[in-house]
User: What shape does this take?
Amino acid sequence: MDATLSPPVTLVIFGATGDLTRRLLVPAVVNLTRSGLAGDDLNILGVGIEPGDDEMLRRRLDEFLSGLGGDSPLSKDEAWLRLRQRISYVSGDFTKDDLFLEISRKLALAPHGNAAFYFAVPPQFFGAIVEKLALHGLTHETNGTFRRIAIEKPFGTDLASARALNALILSNVAESQVYRLDHFLGKETVQNIMTTRFANMMIESLWNSNFIDNVQITAAETVDVGSRGKFYDATGALRDMVPNHLFQLLALVAMEPPNSFDAEAIRNEKSKLLSALRIYTPEEAEIHSARGAYSAGALNGRDIPGFAQTPDVSPDTTTETFVALKLYADTWRWAGVPFYLRTGKAMTARDTEIVVTFRQVPFAQFRKTDVSRHLPPNRLIIQVQPDEGISMEISIKSPGLSVDTVPASLDFRYADAFDIGKMTGYESLLYELFVGDQTLFQRADGIEAGWAAVQPFLDAWAKGGKPEPYEPGSTGPACAEDLIKRDGRQWHALGTASGRDKQQ
Ligand code: BG6
Assistant: This one.
């Protein structure tokens, strides 16, 4: 679809004085405004618990935006100065009727009836807000207007709570009005996974268990838990990253080709794949998982406390800051192909990548040559971040008279070809929310299928045991190495795709 000006809309942000609003949502709307994709009939109505008026919110945003954009701060950007005038604020309690009456009055001032309600608030408010919106008729779509709700993760903390949340939401609004955000889907390289697969015959025709040995999906971070102790101790690496971000990558990598690029066609295939993930018994889940927690040490030249000593973390915590899983998608295409997933904090490199390792060639024809008996397998590496790009590892003949091979990497980096610098990753998500395209958003069944596959790990770990300690700045605990070594394989080295330094 060609991107055109989005329709008039009031973006109602619950949690308007929070971090997400100033760091990502407002800069993304500024970027959309500058690029002509959001017009002067887009208004922002901020909603927050803090007392204040329109000018309070505008000034707060000014202050924050003055720190973005280096020598040409975003606070001076002409697009921001235009948008700034159209920002208003109401304060109140998210669970009280008078706030929603006030929102209703404000919305009635707009010449159009369109509204997108964005929940940039902690999850305990999701239910209350959606119920109040429905009660006050604010989610009612009349005369061709739209009313949509956009919800950030977490969607529940386990299978039962995810089901309950979906049921509550869907008893108040239709699925077509719900935009469940996973910010990974706003990343350019994530959106490119489908193009890489379905626009390239040489890739998609090899994309199955006949040719692929294993798939690794990694989201390694160098940051530690820092000031997020309370949230993280209650959450852990598995819940924080796996059923959402990593499963979105997995679904895009492994789903069947959709019949079209329509939202429902794509979401059908993603849900089908997620619901084909093998559901382990808790005993199997224990065997096919590894968990770790970083200990005290040095990270990027500074000393950090161990996770258990982090402020607001219980000293006898059993929460993991690293998890590795081995999963199977029980489909015709993927029969027997392991999907290894890992994610962790305080690791050696920031590295989000998908590594597809192909099977080895039959090597008979090289028998009488200098080629070593085991040729390295081909690999396709989709580098999600940093240094977004795609590499293909192949074997080539080394120059000279003897027949010998050396590995070579065909390497494409987005930054070498395109100007991708200034985007927040939320531009496409907000734009699709405004134009009403749900492709980049998760559907209730996909979310529940993801939690169903994760639940056995939660159940297994609830029975006891502790995460294994690992050094900050390492590749994770030894048990994660064992998980993959048992299968005669190894993890792709962190921070090494394209041979560039990915340390950040
Ligand atoms: C968030 C998690 O959803 O994703 C964080 O709560 C994590 O713990 C973050 O750091 C990673 O996102 P990104 O875009 O920085 O890779």
User: Anything to note?
Assistant: The mean pLDDT is 93. Residues 283 and 314 are 27 Å apart (CA to CA). Residues 183, 221, 240, 352 surround 6-O-phosphono-beta-D-glucopyranose (CB under 6 Å). The two ends are 35 Å apart (CA to CA).
